[in-house]
Amino acid sequence: MIAEFIKRLTAPDPAPFADADARLALAALLVRIARADGVYAPEERGRIDRVLAARYGLASGDAAELRAQAEGVEAEAPDTVRFTRAIKDAVSYEERLQVIEALWEIVLADGTRDDEEDALLRMLAPMLGVSDRDSNLARQSVEKRRQ
């Protein structure tokens, strides 16, 4: 399953994702940002589960299952540039903007802005075609909710 998904994801001209594929690809980005600092903490996994549950209306067990699948995809996914380009080409701007907000939730899950996670997110936003301004607004929205 993962190999076929990666093959579709990295095709020269990927078709728009079906909902399930978009969920999996975007969940894999959440995992990638959480792993960026070399520590994939239980708080980050829990936050990913909550983000996925809220975002897609999933039960907690289903969100955890999606995250587990995304962990496999992230481990097998190509470099971040090709991975994000494929998502950018297959997912609407509005969806990508929502993903940036979810990514900020993961970066801020442990209460600190780790340099590696922060740097990766600042790199991911333009790769996903999201402006710095919109990414900053997404971060501010997340920070406001966390207060």
Short description:
This protein is an all-alpha fold and 147 residues long. It has eight helices and no strands.
Q: Which runs of at least 5 residues are low in confidence (pLDDT < 50)?
A: none
Helical residues, percent: over 70%
Major sheet: size, sense and barrel closure? none
Number of domains: 1
Distance between the termini: 40 Å
Taken as a percent bin, the fraction of beta residues is under 5%
Shape: globular
Rounded mean pLDDT score: 84
What is the fourth-level CATH superfamily? TerB-like
**Number of helices, where a helix is a run of at least 4 consecutive DSSP H or I residues:** 8
Question: What does this 3D model show about the protein?
Answer:
The protein is an all-alpha fold. It has a single domain (19-146), classed as Orthogonal Bundle (TerB-like), CATH 1.10.3680.10. The chain has eight helices and no strands. Helix 3 packs across helix 4 (60-76) and helix 6 (93-107) packs antiparallel against helix 7. It is globular.
